[in-house]
Every structure is written in structure tokens, then in C-alpha cells.
Amino acid sequence: MTKLLSIRLVAILVGLGFTVVALYSFVVGAYAAITEEAPGHLPYEEPRDIAYSFDGPFGKWDVQQLQRGFKVYNEVCSACHSLKYVAFRDLEQIGYDEGQVKAFAASKQVPGIDPNTGEATTRPGLPTDYFPSPYPNNVAAAAANNNAIPPDLSLMTKARHDGTNYVASLLAGYAEPSAELLEEHPEAAPGPGLHHNPYFPNLNLAMAPPLAMTGQVTYDDGTEATVQQMSEDVAAFLTWTAEPTLVKRKQTGWPVLIFLLFATVLAYLSKNQIWAAAKRKNG
Amino acid sequence: MSFPWAKEYTPTNGVMKFLDEKLPLPRLVYNAVGAGYPVPRNLSYFWNFGVLAGFFLVLQIVTGVVLAMHYAANAQVAFATTEHIMRDVNWGWLMRYAHANGASFFFIVVYLHIFRGLFFSSYKAPREMIWLLGVVIFLLMMATAFMGYVLPWGQMSFWGAKVITGLFGAIPVIGEPIQIWLLGGFAPDNAALNRFFSLHFLLPFVIAGVVILHIWALHIPGSSNPTGVEVKSESDTLPFHPYYTAKDGFGLGVALILFFAMVFFLPNALGHPDNYIEANPLSTPAHIVPEWYFWPFYAILRAFTVDFLFIPAKLMGVIAMFGSILIWFFLPWLDKSPVRSGHYRPLFRKFFYVLLICMAVLFYCGGAPAEEPFVMMSQIATAYYFLHFLVILPIVSQIEKPQPLPYSITEAVLGSDEKAVLGENAKAAA
């Protein structure tokens, strides 16, 4: 009994100790919060909400849009950004046939080995090859881009909060900083080689506006290639590169959920039947 | 073990007779989760979560073993093999999403299981050992989950590993050598990734072993129940099968619907986008946050911001974070109220609800950036957390006047109990 009492006495003392130290931190922090001004955040904007065909539980790819986005990537983004987790063969999933994929792969040079000398060289790509990087290594990428390495785009829409909307908003969102912003946050003014973009968390982006004018890409399906349109299309394409199984995932989900719902209703009814018998017998 | 009226297993055919003589596995199952295990008849749905936790452990082991067939624990290729699983392995995306969300659901059901135990004081005699083993399981789960999150070798994997192993660096004198020894280097790299993979594969089987002990210990006194009144006679119990197999079956169905809704429609909702960026030791993420199930404890860690006398703030945070779970080991001896169930403890109940609010605040602040007002909120909540378990609980159990308990489980369920009473409790409980 005395032993148990002493355990509780020790506990109360230890508990009071933790409480006092936590409250001491609180008092010091609260004093600092009152007396010192907290550093303000740069006011960046949340991505715009854009409707896509693959949104929602019944979403499906818009193959036309993916092909348009692929064209934007191929003609614009791929100059600086790699797509290293995507293979040429994957393009068959967005509506290209085997011949088109072969031809496209062959139009790209990928790293290879000279069969006669064994020296490093390049060769035309095969469908099994992955999209080649525009730079031989990160040092070359940094040197060519004012020290900012263009990130790989394969997973970009999954690697940012609200990624698809973020990519589309960012690409179409370049603008001059407003006078009010500069007045309130002089540090937000773009430095040399930087570009203002309200959707980028620190407002200053090394990438120059890549999509600058209508018609920069000529779409095969006749859609007018406005900056807005190109941004949304390439964001859709990058959503596919980030998760090619997205639509299959949603389509698999429905039969699974319907089966489980059915099984759970049955489980509920059998549970009721079993328990009703118990209640009759004893009650 | 078990009550005198527990049914005995009788093999009905030759094969089962043979088996029962040589290796009585069917008898074991019959006595553990079959008709041979009498269970209080009044268990609510809060008693489903033990079975659900067992299910998610098995799911994690099955999906994890398959993932390990395709994953390579090498810092050069770990991120790429994870993407290989997502893109090229047949149903690999399902395996990985089920494993990632399975970890979250494992923690959800275990947290509900723990808070069930806290409200109904399931840790009290004669069930102290069940509770102690449960806390061990929880600690092992946290270690396993942490190391699992490192394996995809994304930005949060890397920086999470750096922050968490850095905690050991707060220990005076020997902290830094311990940190280097744990990581096998000065920063997380191939050596750390390899040992984390090895341990991440091993620990779930250790958990499974402790789960067997947990269930073994449970079967000695039998399950607790919402009244907290111990079983007195046969009319207080029902055989586990078919009554609780049916009830757990329904509970499992509901859990699976919620789980697969997440897996198929919101698979990344509980994860952090930064972990889809490959680990880069030269670029620190703006906010390093652990997975959601660590948030309350992460908030406690960060609540200690000021050095106190000779104790550095970081060391105090580390002690408090580990201490916040270790104090659960002492609960059976801190709460001495003879009444178990929170339903009959008016004062305890009020403080329990404050604890729930406090946990919600800690959870929210742990996921928020380390800025005001979140730091101040977590400091108040941390103070209450320790106050609750170490000060309020012992005092309340001393001064509280509990409400009258029902005479028996049968009375609580059916309104009267006129059956003969077995065992020691021949008089109504106060």
C-alpha cells in the first residue's frame, strides 16, 4: 500500500515537473509573440480550380487532351525538363499505335554504346527506352539554367499540393508584380534572372515563361493553342505521367466497393439474426 | 483458463480426432476464437478494434512481403524501384497504396483501441499485462512505421530520418556517437536505408509475436466490458462464435469499405506531396512533418522551446515525447479507482473528454508549421497531457464518488438477473 502510494506521489511530482517546464516554454513564447513581430509570409496564391475529365470517382482520361499535352511537353518543356520514369512504349496508353511510338522513339537520340569501339555514343531510341534527359548531368543542367536545375517532370503533379491545378495555374500565371505587393514586401521584387509568378511559393521563379503566346504549339486536332489551353493540356499530360494507372485505379475501386457493400449488408443481417436468437433465449 | 461453463472441444470425425491427439490446433482455435471462449454479452462496437488491428497487421505483412519482392533497398535506386512498382509491376500500385494506407488504418484502429482502453480503464487488474503488452506493440508499430516511411527514399523519407535520428543527438555526451551508430554514417544514406529495410521487414513479425502474447494474456481473465463489472455467471457471457465472429465480421466489412474507398479514390490524401520528390541531401523541405499518426507526439517534441535550468530544450522535448508514451506503462498503478468503466465515473469522464480535446489540439499542431499560435497551443495541450495522466488521474481516482454499478452484466443488459451466482461476488457491487 505504501509502495503504491509512493508510485503515485512520484508520478504527481514528475507530472507537475513536465507541466511546469511546458508552461515555462509557453510563457517565454507568448512573451516573445507579444513583443516581437513574427516574420510575415509572402502572399502566394492557391492554384485555380480547373475541371478535368479525370477528376472525381468516375474520372476518365481525355485522350485528345493527353495527346495535346504530350505535344506541348515534347515541343516546349522537353528542351529543359526530363521525364525519366516514362518510357516511349507508355505512349501507347494515350492512343498512339505501335508504329507511331516506334517512329517517335527513333526520332529521339538516347545514350548508347558504339558496337565497334565500345565508346559512349548516342543511338535512335526504341519503344523500350525511357525519355532521355536534355542534359548529360546535373552540373550541365545547372550551368545552362542560371544555376537552377530544371526538375524531372514525371511525378510533378503528385509532388506538389493540388499538383494538376498548380502546374496549370503556374504556367499560365506569369505576371508583373503589383505595386501594392512591392510596397508591402519589397523583398518580393524579382532578382536578376528571376520571374514573378503569384502561384510560386516564394513568388520568384528561375524559369522564364515557357508558354508565351497563342499558337506556340500547333495542335493536330485543330484546338486553338492559347496559353491557358496549353497550360491545362500539359498539366493533364503530366497527371498521366505521374500516375498512368489513375483511371484503372478508380475503375477497379467501384466493383470492389460494391462487392464489399453487399457483403457488409449480408454480414449485418446475419449478425442481427444470430443476436436475435440470443436475446429471445435469455430475455 | 476461461470460465467453468466454457464449452469443450469434441472432435467429430476421425481426422479431427487424429489431429486433436497429435497436435490440438483445432482445439486451440476453438478455445481462442470459437465457441469455447465465453465473452461478456454486452460488448459494444468499441470492442471490434482489436480484431481489426489484427486484420490490418496481417494485411501489412502480406502486402509488404509482395512489395519487398520488387523493391531494392539501395539509395541509388530505391526511389526508382518504388516508381517501378507503381508503373510496371502488375497491380503494384494497388499493393503500394494498400500498404501505405494500411499503415494509416492500422494506426486509426489502434488509436481507437487504446482510447477504448483508457475510457473503460481496461488496463486495471486483472488485465495489467494485456495493457503493458499493448503499449509494447504500439511502440514497435511506431518504430516499424517510421522505418517504412524512409524506404521510398523521397524528400520526407530522408529528412524525417534525419530529424528522428537527430533526436538521439540530444542525449548529452553519448548522443552524437549513438546517432552515427544508428545511421551507420553522419547522415542518412545507403547504410541507414539498408538497416531500416532489414528492421522494417523483421519488426512486424516481432509485433505478431507480441500480439500472440497480448491475446494469450487476454484469455486468462477474459475481455473487459462496457459496465466494467466482471463476469459472474454463465448468463453474463455468450460464446465468441457465432456471436462475436458475426459482430466482428460486420465491423470488418465497414472498416474495409472505408479502407478501400481511401485506397482507390484518395490514395495520397494522407501522405505528403514532398515524398514524390527523390531524396536530396542538399535541399531541405520548407516544412518537415512526419506521417499524421505521429503528429500528437511530434507536437509534444516541439512544445519545449526554451532551455530550463541545465536541461536544453531539445533534450527536454525528446524526454517528453518518449515519456508521453512510456507513462502509459504506469497507468494500472496510477488509477486506483475500483470502478473501471467511465460510464460510472462522472468526474473522470469530464477529464477524459478534456484529454480527447487535448489530443486533437496536439494532433493539429503537430501537422502545422512550427509557428505561433500553434506552438503556444501545443504547449498548453502538452502541459495538460502530462497533468492528466500523472496528476489528475491519481487524484481523481482517490476523491471521486462513482455512480452505482449494475449488479451484473446480465442485469445491465436485460434489466434483472435472477440466475444463481457463481464465484466470489455473491453480493451486489456498490
UniProtKB/TrEMBL annotation, chain A:
<keyword id="KW-0472">Membrane</keyword>
<keyword id="KW-0812">Transmembrane</keyword>
<keyword id="KW-1133">Transmembrane helix</keyword>
<keyword id="KW-0479">Metal-binding</keyword>
<keyword id="KW-0408">Iron</keyword>
<keyword id="KW-0349">Heme</keyword>
<feature type="transmembrane region" description="Helical">
    <location>
        <begin position="252"/>
        <end position="270"/>
    </location>
</feature>
<dbReference type="InterPro" id="IPR009056">
    <property type="entry name" value="Cyt_c-like_dom"/>
</dbReference>
<dbReference type="InterPro" id="IPR036909">
    <property type="entry name" value="Cyt_c-like_dom_sf"/>
</dbReference>
<feature type="domain" description="Cytochrome c">
    <location>
        <begin position="64"/>
        <end position="171"/>
    </location>
</feature>
<protein>
    <recommendedName>
        <fullName>Cytochrome c1</fullName>
    </recommendedName>
</protein>
<dbReference type="Pfam" id="PF02167">
    <property type="entry name" value="Cytochrom_C1"/>
</dbReference>
<dbReference type="InterPro" id="IPR002326">
    <property type="entry name" value="Cyt_c1"/>
</dbReference>
From TrEMBL, chain B:
<dbReference type="InterPro" id="IPR030689">
    <property type="entry name" value="Cytochrome_b"/>
</dbReference>
<feature type="transmembrane region" description="Helical">
    <location>
        <begin position="347"/>
        <end position="370"/>
    </location>
</feature>
<dbReference type="Pfam" id="PF00033">
    <property type="entry name" value="Cytochrome_B"/>
</dbReference>
<keyword id="KW-0249">Electron transport</keyword>
<comment type="function">
    <text>Component of the ubiquinol-cytochrome c reductase complex (complex III or cytochrome b-c1 complex), which is a respiratory chain that generates an electrochemical potential coupled to ATP synthesis.</text>
</comment>
<protein>
    <recommendedName>
        <fullName>Cytochrome b</fullName>
    </recommendedName>
</protein>
<comment type="similarity">
    <text>Belongs to the cytochrome b family.</text>
</comment>
<keyword id="KW-1133">Transmembrane helix</keyword>
<dbReference type="InterPro" id="IPR005798">
    <property type="entry name" value="Cyt_b/b6_C"/>
</dbReference>
<feature type="transmembrane region" description="Helical">
    <location>
        <begin position="45"/>
        <end position="73"/>
    </location>
</feature>
<dbReference type="InterPro" id="IPR048259">
    <property type="entry name" value="Cytochrome_b_N_euk/bac"/>
</dbReference>
<comment type="subunit">
    <text>The main subunits of complex b-c1 are: cytochrome b, cytochrome c1 and the Rieske protein.</text>
</comment>
<dbReference type="InterPro" id="IPR048260">
    <property type="entry name" value="Cytochrome_b_C_euk/bac"/>
</dbReference>
<dbReference type="InterPro" id="IPR005797">
    <property type="entry name" value="Cyt_b/b6_N"/>
</dbReference>
<keyword id="KW-0472">Membrane</keyword>
<dbReference type="InterPro" id="IPR036150">
    <property type="entry name" value="Cyt_b/b6_C_sf"/>
</dbReference>
<feature type="transmembrane region" description="Helical">
    <location>
        <begin position="163"/>
        <end position="184"/>
    </location>
</feature>
<dbReference type="InterPro" id="IPR016174">
    <property type="entry name" value="Di-haem_cyt_TM"/>
</dbReference>
<feature type="transmembrane region" description="Helical">
    <location>
        <begin position="93"/>
        <end position="118"/>
    </location>
</feature>
<keyword id="KW-0408">Iron</keyword>
<keyword id="KW-0813">Transport</keyword>
<keyword id="KW-0349">Heme</keyword>
